[in-house]
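Thread amino acids onto this structure.
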C-alpha cells in the first residue's frame, strides 16, 4: 500500500502515508512494512500462484476506519478472519477495533511465522484476545460457526477468490457475514453471490459488504464515504 501510495497519491501524500504506517508499526511492535513475494515458503501443491497477490501491509488508518463502522456488538461477538494475513498488520488493526477472536490465514509459511512474531506485543497487551494463525491456502479454510467478519486486502483473484467467496456464501446461509474488502479487484465475485454493498470508500478503494440471515434488517451505512487521508 505504501509504495503504491507514493505512485498514486503524489510524493507528499505518499510520504505521509508511509510515515503513518511506520509509526503504526512501531507503536504496536510490528515489522510489517516491507513487501514480500508469496512464493517464499509455500508447501501446498494445490496453491494457485497466478491468483496470488504479493505481501504488502494494509493502510492501517483506512482499515481501522472501516472496521469502526461495524456495530460494537459485531466486533465483540464475531470472528475476524484476515484472508492472506501476511505479516499481521490487518490482524493488529482488528485487535484495536475491538475483536476478541481473530484468525489469520496465510499460505506462506515464512510470512505466517513473521505474523506470529509480530503479534507478540499485541498479545501481551491484550491477554483476553485469542489470535490464531493458520498456514494454509485460503480456499481450504473453513470458518468457525457464528458471525463472521472477513477481511481481505486484495489477497488473491480468479478461481481462488471464487472458492473463498463460495465458502462465505455458504456460511451466510446460517450466520451473518460482513466483508471488509480493500482494493476490491474482485467485487463482482461477491455481488454475484448475494453480498450487498453497505458502504463504498473513496472512488471504490474499499467496500463494506454484507450477507446473511439478518442482512435485510441491518442498518445501511452511508454510501460513498469520502476518504479523509489526513485521519
Ligand atoms: C496484499 S497482502 C495482504 C496483507 C494483510 N492482509 C494486511 O492487511 O496487511 C496479500 C497476502 O495474501 C497472501 N495470499 C495470497 N494467496 C493466498 C492464498 N491462496 N491463501 C492464503 N494466503 C494467500 C499473500 O501471501 C500475502 O501475504
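Threaded sequence (231 positions):
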Amino acid at each position: 500500500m505504501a509504495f503504491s501510495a507514493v505512485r498514486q497519491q503524489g510524493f507528499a501524500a505518499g510520504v505521509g502515508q508511509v510515515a503513518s504506517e511506520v509509526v503504526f508499526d512501531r507503536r504496536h511492535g510490528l515489522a510489517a512494512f516491507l513487501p514480500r513475494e508469496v512464493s517464499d515458503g509455500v508447501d501446498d501443491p494445490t496453491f494457485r500462484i497466478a491468483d496470488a497477490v504479493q505481501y504488502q501491509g494494509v493502510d492501517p488508518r483506512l482499515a481501522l476506519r472501516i472496521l469502526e463502522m461495524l456495530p460494537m456488538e459485531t466486533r465483540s461477538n464475531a470472528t475476524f478472519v484476515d484472508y492472506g494475513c501476511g505479516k499481521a498488520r490487518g490482524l493488529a488493526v482488528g485487535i484495536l477495533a475491538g475483536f476478541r477472536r481473530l484468525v489469520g490465514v496465510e499460505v506462506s509459511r515464512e510470512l505466517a511465522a513473521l505474523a506470529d512474531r509480530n503479534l507478540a506485543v499485541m498479545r501481551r497487551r491484550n491477554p483476553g484476545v485469542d489470535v490464531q494463525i493458520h498456514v494454509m491456502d485460503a480456499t481450504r479454510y473453513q470458518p468457525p460457526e457464528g458471525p463472521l467478519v472477513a477481511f481481505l486486502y486484495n489477497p488473491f483473484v480468479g478461481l481462488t477468490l471464487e472458492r473463498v467467496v463460495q465458502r462465505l456464501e455458504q456460511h451466510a446461509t446460517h450466520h451473518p457475514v460482513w466483508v471488509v474488502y480493500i482494493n476490491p479487484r474482485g467485487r463482482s465475485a461477491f455481488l454475484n453471490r448475494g453480498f450487498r454493498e453497505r458502504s463504498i470508500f473513496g472512488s471504490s478503494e474499499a467496500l463494506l459488504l454484507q450477507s446473511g440471515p439478518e442482512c435485510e434488517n441491518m442498518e445501511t451505512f452511508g454510501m460513498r464515504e469520502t476518504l479523509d487521508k489526513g485521519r
